[in-house]
Write a structure and sequence with these properties.
The protein has about 270 residues and is mostly beta strands. It has no helices and 23 strands. It has a domain at about 75-105 and about 135-260. It is about 0% helix and about 50% strand. Strands 8, 10, 13, 14, 15, 17, 20, 21 and 23 form a nine-stranded mixed sheet that branches.
């Protein structure tokens, strides 16, 4: 078996010669891609895995059509909502607003390219760059399974290439449209409706805007179209998992001081 060199991940087309292995580094994740004739083989390992050589990897195999020699490597967000806590809990005064950045761990998807056709690309497998803990958000009778991300929401963030490389910067603008002070210590963000953009080697999502109306009212949630101002002019590299919901569909801030964001498109 040929020795494969480790390459930094480049989102887009990945050509594979017959018998060739390519290895991509995405944070702590190493992704192995291999082609044997009309078969595609994929494997992964993380920095803390103990594997003496490639022969001990768990390879996933796919039979593909004759002539398929190119894969597509695409960044994605997790397949469930994420619950995060800011670096320090804060309060939003009535009529004020605050902007935070949720640092969402990246998922690397290996796809068969659609070849320019209208059909969606075929996803062979997704590889999370981090092991995510599960948590339950909401009440016992009215909640959902999410991923918990401890202390990965920031009030300020710099777009430094290489820093937090396997994470996506997801801006959230919180507007307090009520007459009460709004405490923020937990945020639940549904990432399925967000697209991904790359600028100068940094990945960003659309900005989510949440307007809190107070009491038991539902928050008004929208997603701004296109990249955020920090990534103006960036190229789109990842698509939404699902169409954004529209209307007032967000769970509100509650006594547990949690906000659930279910985004819808903003006109």
């Amino acid at each position: 078996m040929p020795i494969a060199r480790l390459e930094p991940a480049a989102w887009g087309e990945c050509a594979l010669e017959d018998g060739e292995i390519r290895r991509f580094s995405i944070g702590r994740l190493t992704l192995h891609c291999r082609r044997d004739g009309d078969e595609i083989l994929l494997a992964s390992e993380k920095d803390d895995d103990s594997r003496p050589n490639d022969t001990d990897l768990l390879w996933y195999r796919w039979a593909v059509k004759e002539g398929v020699t190119t894969l597509h490597l695409a960044p994605r967000l997790p397949d469930r909502p994420v619950v995060v806590g800011p670096e320090q809990p804060f309060h939003v005064a009535p009529g004020a607003e605050a902007r935070i950045f949720v640092m969402v761990p990246l998922v690397a998807a290996v796809e068969l390219s659609s070849g320019g056709n209208a059909d969606e690309p075929v996803v062979l497998r997704e590889f999370p760059t981090e092991t995510l803990s599960q948590t339950w958000f909401g009440e016992l009778e009215d909640g959902e399974l999410c991923y918990w991300l401890p202390t990965i929401a920031r009030r300020e963030v710099e777009a430094t290439p290489g820093e937090d490389a396997p994470r996506v910067r997801a801006p959230v603008r919180i507007v307090n449209g009520s007459t009460d002070v709004l405490p923020v210590s937990r945020v639940c963000l549904r990432v399925g409706g967000l697209a991904l953009y790359e600028k100068d080697g940094v990945l960003w999502s659309n900005e989510t805007r949440a307007v809190f109306r107070g009491g038991a009212a539902r928050s008004e949630i929208t997603i701004r179209r296109g990249p955020p101002p920090e990534a103006a002019g960036g190229r789109r590299v990842g698509f939404r998992r699902e169409a954004p919901a529209t209307g007032l569909v967000a769970r509100t801030f509650r006594s547990l001081q949690r906000l659930s964001l279910w985004p819808g498109d903003e006109d």
